[in-house]
Amino acid sequence: MNTFALLFVGLLLAGMAAKLVLMRRQVRHVQAHRDTVPAAFAASIPLTSHQRAADYTAARAGLSARQTMASALFLLVMTLGGGLQAVHDAWAALLAPGSLGHGVALLASLAVLGWLLELPFVLSRTFVIEKRFGFNRMTPRLFVTDTVREGVLAAVIGLPLLAILLWITSSMGELWWLWVWAFWLGFNLMVMLVWPTFIAPLFNKFTPLADAALKTRVEALLARCGFQSKGLFVMDGSRRSAHGNAYFTGFGASKRIVFFDTLLDKLNADEVEAVLAHELGHFRHRHIFKRLAVLAPASLGMLAVLGWLMQQPWFFSGLGMTATDIATALALFMLILPVFTFPLAPFFSHWSRVHEYEADAYAASQTRATDLVAALVKLYRDNASTLTPDPLYSRFFDSHPPAALRVARLQTLQH
Ligand SMILES: [Zn+2]
Predict the structure, then answer these.
(1) Hey, is 250 helix, strand or coil?
(2) Is there a contact between 265 and 214 (Cβ–Cβ < 8 Å)?
(3) What one-character-per-residue DSSP string does 34-47 give?
């Protein structure tokens, strides 16, 4: 093992240990607070709902812990265990190593292996945990149809995309990483543009919002906030899950607002308006743009690092490879990147929570804060979200502030 291999294994094990310790803390904290509803929610959330949320949180964390260990093992097998080299050699019998075809085959095989690794966890999450807590609406038949559609879509879009990326990398000279970056940004923008109108309808039905009274109120809110939308839609989220949500999608001409039917079933008009105002807050504060403004230069930096690593023999040998072609470098890089970026997770979670508070404050300025509180309480209750997360776990992983802090902050914004 060279120094790089030691660093990689050390970080991988440290990251896994940190995740497992945090998940264990989360389960213990939630279970220790299982028998008392926090005072702020005592009037609105019954003890049975609170206990159900505790059990649901513990069940999910247990599965995530097993998944964390399986992913770490997979990573070790693929790198130091020689797994990726074996896949590389197997394809070499059919296609010349270093060729475009071999590179695409290698990277696509890695994607399929990663999918196979996730499959048992997705199945137990959907058909065991979600089912046990009454959230799952997915039938095995729909699961198979979804999987086939996703597979076809991944092949139709992913295979040419991989070929283009490999081609750019091998034929654009020294500055290939700049070209790959520009292509990747353009591709992502295109996906954002076509997703709502062409891809999302392959999986769900979108119908224009029919409730006239609600529509009038929502349109008044949009006008008040200066937001131009190309339509209000209701999505049949209930086909797959009882969890409810609302979101914005697309940009420019394809911009639309989507409500899950499950959300509209639960909330009254005031609450729907408040939830939408929160989403508009994200738009108003340009959160997506800010995220992109950090991630785009960061990805350029990472590509430059990849360009440098490709020239270093220790990068390949340290990770169990004798092959040193471009596709191998790309495969290794994608495999190990999460190990090296994991320490950044708390910073991104923190940033996301800051954005949530900003969106809440905006909602409170455009609608009544009490309506958003009422909506959140219903959503925490019906989605079995824990009200008592472990503070350290929450600081590390949660994209949204803990329920108690969020509601307390909103109550100070009441006007
Ligand atoms: Zn939000």
Answers:
(1) coil
(2) no
(3) TTS--GGGTTTS-H
Q: What is the CA 37 to chain-centroid distance, rounded?
A: 29
What pLDDT score does 415 carry? 66
**Amino acid 254: pLDDT:** 66
Residues 21-60: tens digit of each pLDDT: 999 999 999 999 999 999 989 999 999 999 999 999 999 9
b/e burial code for range 371-386 (CB count within 10 A of at least 16 → b)? bbbbbbbbbbbbbbbb
Q: Which amino acid is at 215?
A: K
143 C-alpha vs ligand 1 centroid, how far in Å? 28
Q: Give just the sign of the alpha carbon dihedral 251, 254, 257, 258.
A: negative
The CA 292 to ligand 1 mean position distance, Å, reads 16
**Where do the H-state alpha helices sit in 41-99?**
47-78, 83-92
C-alpha Rg value of the chain to the nearest Å: 23
For residues 86-107, one letter each, b for 16 or more C-beta atoms within 10 angstroms of the residue's C-beta and e for the rest, the string is: ebbeebbeeeebebbebbbbbb
How far is ligand 1, taken at its centre, from the CA of residue 25, in Å? Answer: 26
What is the pLDDT at residue 250?
67
- φ, ψ for residue 208 (rounded to 5)? -55, 145
Q: What is the pLDDT of residue 253?
A: 63
Token duo for residue 72: 């770490």
Predicted confidence at residue 252, as pLDDT, reads 65
Show the low-confidence residues of the chain (pLDDT under 50).
none
The pLDDT score that the predictor gives to residue 367 is: 94
Q: How far apart are CA 143 and CA 159, in angstroms?
A: 23
CB 363 within 8 A of CB 278: yes
Q: How far apart are CA 415 and CA 232, in angstroms?
A: 28
Task: For residue 302, report the distance from its CA to the centre of ligand 1, in Å.
Answer: 28
C-alpha 290 to ligand 1 mean position (Å): 14
Residues whose Cβ atom is located within 5 A of ion ligand 1: 356, 359
- Tell me which residue of 129, 131, 126, 128 sits closest to 143, measured CA to CA: 126
| Chain segment 207-244, per-residue pLDDT in tens | 999 999 999 999 999 999 888 877 889 999 998 988 87
Q: Which residues are catalytic?
A: 279, 360
Task: Say what the pLDDT of residue 231 is.
Answer: 85
Centroid of ligand 1 to alpha carbon of 193 (angstroms): 21
How far away, in angstroms, is 376 Cα from ligand 1 center?
Answer: 11
* Strand pairing class (232-235; 206-208): antiparallel
